[in-house]
Amino acid sequence: MEPFNQNLAVSVDRYIEALFAPEDEALIENRGASQAAGLPDIAVSPNQGKLLYLIAKLAGARRILEIGTLGGYSTTWLARALPAEGTLVSLECEPVHARVAHQNLERAAVSAQVQIRVGPAGESLRAMIAAREKPFDLIFIDAEKPGYPGYLLQSVELSRPGTVILADNVIRNGLVMEESPADENARGARAFNAALAAHAGLESIVLPIIRDKFDGMSISIVK
Ligand code: SAH
Ligand code: DHB
Ligand code: MG
User: Fold this and answer.
1) Residue of 48, 97, 105 to test ligand 1 pocket, by largest number of atoms within 8 Å of CB
2) pLDDT 10s digits, 10-62
3) Which of 124, 195, 197, 137 shows the shortest CA–CA distance to 165?
4) C-alpha angle 188-205-114 in degrees, rounded to nearest 5
5) What is the DSSP string of the chain?
6) Whether residue 220 has pLDDT greater than 70
7) 68 close to ligand 1 (CB < 6 Angstrom)
8) What pLDDT sits at residue 149?
9) Is the CB of 183 under 6 A from ligand 1?
10) 93-104 residue pLDDT tens
11) Are 66 and 90 in contact (CB under 8 A)?
């Protein structure tokens, strides 16, 4: 057997993608339009998008909250898992990202079910908690990593028993294993992982995710 090797892992990821997560026109155009608009190339992979879609379906999610929209790539995968009457709220602080995402969601024919709220996510979440917004069935945390510990607590406030909480980029090529990572994103993800593991109201695991780098996504259920 081959020892673990990044090239092998990337080829296996492509093999899985070709079989289980081929992109349709709307997803290909989403990436193209996001790149053309100068957005960073940091959306989830097709395989992770399919995983998000499947988890949302498994959870029977009708109300989804996403923290960090970018060009709406993960948003599209998640919105496609919703039933006809389902809704998704996505939080984004960059107006340009929100505008590109809105166009992409129109092209994917899911924009009627998606509301993008523009502004710092922490403030939008605080307003939603204060307004006693109905709990979400699934929450996907994917904005700036130093904000993750705070987003976790706010997400729990917007949950009910059984809500699924997911967070992207919690391994950062293994940097989170360092005691005090120099990279602020890895530091945020490490603090998030510790808070997640210690949270008495959640049951959680981290799933390794292979892309060009080694990363991971946490999966939690609210007790
Ligand atoms: N979920 C997307 C990727 C999100 S990238 C996908 O997989 O397709 C992270 C996004 O979070 C960026 O668009 C960035 O502008 C946004 N962001 C960063 N800090 C934020 C904040 N404080 N509030 C809201 N959005 C933020
Ligand atoms: C990066 C990747 C992400 O998925 C994200 O949400 C933010 C940053 C990155 O690789 O830098
Ligand atoms: Mg991410």
Assistant:
1) 97
2) 999 999 999 999 999 999 999 999 999 999 999 999 999 999 999 999 999 99
3) 137
4) 70
5) -PPP-HHHHHHHHHHHHHHH----HHHHHHHHHHHHTT--S-SPPHHHHHHHHHHHHHTT-SEEEEE--TTSHHHHHHHTTS-TT-EEEEEES-HHHHHHHHHHHHHTT-GGGEEEEES-HHHHHHHHHHTTPPPPSEEEE-S-GGGHHHHHHHHHHT--TT-EEEEE-SSGGGGGGSSS-SSHHHHHHHHHHHHHHH-TTEEEEEEEEESSSEEEEEEEEE-
6) yes
7) yes
8) 98
9) no
10) 999 999 999 999
11) yes
Residue closest via CA to ligand 1's atom 3 equals 43
Ligand sitting nearest the alpha carbon of 49: 1
pLDDT at 211: 83
200, amino acid identity:
A
Which among 74, 57, 56, 75 has a CA at the least distance from the CA of 113?
Answer: 75
Fold that domain 6-222 belongs to in CATH: Rossmann fold (3.40.50)
- Tell me whether strands 164-168 and 202-210 are parallel, antiparallel or unpaired: unpaired
Six token digits for residue 73: 């790539």
Residues 6+ apart with CB under 8 A from 199: 152, 156, 220
Global pTM reads: 0.98
Distance between CA atoms of 155 and 149, rounded to whole angstroms? Answer: 10
Which residues are near ligand 3, the ion (C-beta closer than 5 Å)?
142, 168-169
